From TrEMBL:
Keywords: Hydrolase, Leucine-rich repeat, Metal-binding, Protein phosphatase, Repeat. GO terms for cellular component: cytoplasm. Belongs to the PP2C family. The keyword Metal-binding applies. This is PPM-type phosphatase domain-containing protein. Residues 405-697 form the PPM-type phosphatase domain. PROSITE patterns: LRR, PPM_1, PPM_2. SMART domains: LRR_SD22, LRR_TYP, PP2Cc. InterPro entries: Leu-rich_rpt (IPR001611), Leu-rich_rpt_4 (IPR025875), Leu-rich_rpt_typical-subtyp (IPR003591), LRR_dom_sf (IPR032675), LRR_domain-containing (IPR050216), PP2C_BS (IPR000222), PPM-type-like_dom_sf (IPR036457), PPM-type_phosphatase-like_dom (IPR001932).
């Protein structure tokens, strides 16, 4: 026997029969419950591929060093704390996966010269803080290094000798300087996001092979010319200290351009050199007008101009026929007889901008966020767009909402709570997330009973939208303040159950029509909601949308900028449960129902085990919600996070809390904090829709 696949079973030990196969070349034991590899692994000297990923291993057997034919080795998603020196005996390794472990340091002799065939090394999500000076020497075949989410502070100068490398991912470390990269002529991806850099690596302009450059979230004050990077597809420069920016790359390939939250003191660069941009992020730049060149970007689908100082929108925006999301929230947009700005004899730039029907030119638009502006009248053509195309227009804290039919516009009432939210399509084709914001419910509950939530849809947005619209009414139908047996916890759980039944009835009727959208039958959504009532927070969730509570520190924080992720561990509390098919409890439930889990997915299809919809996988997908309650913290710094997995796939609970806490201390703006959390998740590589919500409350 040459190949043996025993992955995705429930083995706690490697079966003895395996060691009776001396000719075995490929062994897959991934996704089991194995906690130890016996020393007799050394007899498998012909082994070329060994996959031990997603087990419960705490140690790496030194005897594995005798398996010198290995060219592929995976120990990803275990609990390893260190590696033996014998690993350097595996000189034929081409691929080594050590990601998602607890490794704090590498063996003394662990360097690329010991692995002459190695092409891919992945040790992201560990605690490694040091690489030896000669780590990159004699590495003629090495191509890809993934070292993000570690504790590295310096990178060896020898990296300049690694001329074969194509990918360097060092995001989320503590790097404050980086060696020259001028000799890395094959480098296509450089990710240094969320570090401590003050300068970009020397020779950046010479790496003309770059396709992705991510410098997000550093302290960089100046940027050399990047016009030579003509192959660039993705550029992330947001959240630095750049006061000016030279010309953008002369790249017809540039798809994503993120230059948000920069303290610019000069005009924006021209966008004419990158005509194929699809996603453009210009939020929080103190812009007073929309750059006219944007209208020449005919492939633009996402435009974020939020958190600026715009007073009007130019009608030429109507030329952006492919635009899917337009976010102009948190500006100074005004129109009509606005008493704050209009006097009898005063005119202002852009006056009358809302009298043209240019909105109808946005043929592909799905979401327009006008919240936190100062408009008093509906712009001409906007309501027509909403009525005919079902466009979602968000109007929270915009006086315009008081003059409109709520059936067409989403007011998102926040009540007595200080609420911030932000979302983006990200790298997906469409936005499938929906917020639930009901800070004021109908009488007699007023704002003494408020609910906030998030639904993260898949396949389509239909189920998430249905849930966001109808969940509160289902909850209120079950919740009785006079019935002690119908507690808020039980009411929340029952609301998920009856909402799911209601959705099933809807699609059973609609899908009976052969002309109906048949994707409704295979659509679904996760959900997480928080009910504020009687000085408590009642939380319920299904799927992997998560609710996290920061209780506030019990000591005075002197220097907010010095806080680290680990400082938040005692004060952060997860209130929800991630329902993943490969967790012990969920996998057992699925198996008992006759189903199976492949690669962490039910039947190899769906990556969550509980949700609304997904009836084609019933009963393997359950609508039974998890629910929990805590007393409302009285600390003035406390806050609640409700975010989709697009955030949690990239950030831990504590990392998210740190970002929000520091942002709130810096600006005291909960919307800015939500935006920053969203942008961080995006910059760190989230390829999903990204939605963030922060809830604060008055503690007086």
């Amino acid at each position: 026997m040459r190949t043996l696949k025993l992955n995705q079973n429930r083995y706690t030990d490697i079966p003895d029969v395996v060691f009776l196969l001396p000719c075995l070349k490929k062994l897959n034991l991934a996704m089991n419950k194995i906690s130890k590899i016996p020393s007799k692994i050394s007899v498998l000297t012909s082994l070329e591929v060994l996959d031990m990923g997603h087990n419960k291993l705490t140690s790496f057997p030194s005897e594995l060093g005798y398996c010198r034919s290995l060219n592929y080795l995976s120990f990803r998603n275990n609990s390893l704390t260190l590696l033996p020196n014998s690993i350097t005996q595996l000189t034929n390794l081409e691929t080594l996966f050590l990601l998602y472990n607890n490794i704090s340091y590498l063996p003394t002799d662990f360097k690329l010269s010991k692995f002459p065939e190695l092409a891919i090394l992945d040790f992201q999500y560990n605690s490694i803080d040091y690489l030896p000076d000669d780590f990159f020497e004699e590495s003629s075949k090495f191509q890809e290094l993934f070292a993000c989410h570690n504790h590295l502070s310096t990178i060896p100068q020898s990296i300049s000798l690694c001329t074969s490398i194509t990918t360097l991912d060092f995001k989320k470390n503590r790097i404050d300087s980086f060696p020259s990269i001028s000799n890395l002529f094959l480098l296509s991806t450089l990710n240094l996001a969320s570090n401590l850099l003050h300068y970009v690596p020397e020779g950046l302009d010479k790496v003309t092979s770059l396709k992705s450059l991510n410098l997000f979230g550093n302290y960089i004050t100046s940027l050399p010319s990047i016009t030579t990077l003509t192959l660039l597809h993705h550029l992330h420069l947001s959240y630095n200290l750049l006061t000016s920016l030279g010309p953008l790359p002369n790249s017809p390939h540039l798809l994503t351009c993120s230059i948000s939250s920069l303290p610019f003191q000069t005009p924006l660069p021209s966008f004419l050199t990158c005509p194929h941009v699809e996603s453009l992020y210009l939020n929080n730049l103190n812009l007073q007008s929309v750059p006219s060149e944007i209208t020449y970007l005919r492939f633009l689908t996402q435009l974020d101009l939020s958190h600026n100082k715009l007073t009007f929108l130019p009608p030429i925006l109507g030329r952006l026929r492919g635009l899917y999301i337009l976010d102009v929230s948190h500006n100074l947009l005004r129109n009509g007889k606005n008493e704050d700005f209009n006097t009898k004899n005063t005119r202002w730039e852009g006056e009358g901008w809302d009298k043209f029907g240019w909105w109808t030119g946005l043929e592909n638009i799905a979401v327009i966020d006008l919240s936190w502006n100062r408009m008093v009248e509906c712009p001409f053509g906007l309501q027509e767009l909403v009525e005919e195309k079902g466009v979602e227009v968000v109007l929270d804290h915009n006086p315009m909402r008081n003059t409109l039919d709520y059936s067409f516009f989403d007011p998102r009432l926040t009540g007595k709570y200080n609420l911030g939210w932000a979302d983006m399509v990200g790298l997906r084709e469409s936005q499938e997330d929906c917020f639930l914001i009901k800070g004021i419910l109908r009488e007699p509950y007023n704002d003494e009973l408020s609910i906030f939530g998030l639904f993260d849809g898949h396949v389509s947005r239909a189920v998430a939208q249905f849930a966001a619209v109808h969940f509160s009414e289902h909850l209120l139908s079950h919740l009785s303040l006079d019935d002690p047996l119908m507690s808020p916890i039980k009411s929340l759980k029952k609301a998920f159950y009856t909402l799911n039944a209601n959705w099933h009835s809807v699609i059973s009727t609609e899908c009976a029509d052969t002309d109906a959208d048949q994707t409704l039958a295979i659509s679904g959504t996760t959900g997480a909601v928080a009910l504020f009532m009687n000085n408590h927070i009642y939380v319920a969730n299904i799927g992997d949308s998560r609710v996290v509570l920061f209780n506030g520190f019990d000591y005075e924080v002197e220097h907010v900028s010095d806080l680290k992720t680990e400082d938040f561990i005692p004060y952060v509390q997860r209130l929800s449960v991630d329902h993943k098919p490969d967790t012990d409890e969920e996998e057992q439930r699925i198996r008992e129902l006759g189903g199976y889990v492949v690669n962490g997915r039910i039947g190899g299809i769906l990556g969550v085990s509980r949700g609304l919809g997904d009836f084609y996988l019933y009963p393997l997908v359950s609508s039974k919600a998890f629910a929990f309650s805590v007393e409302l913290p009285e600390h003035p710094d406390a806050f609640l996070l409700i975010c989709c997995d697009g955030v949690w796939d990239e950030l831990s609970d504590e990392e998210a809390a740190l970002i929000v806490y520091q942002s709130m201390k810096e600006k005291e703006d909960v919307h800015h904090a939500a935006m920053k959390l969203r942008d961080y998740a995006f910059s760190l590589g989230s390829d999903d829709n990204i939605s963030t919500m922060i809830v604060k409350w008055n503690t007086v």
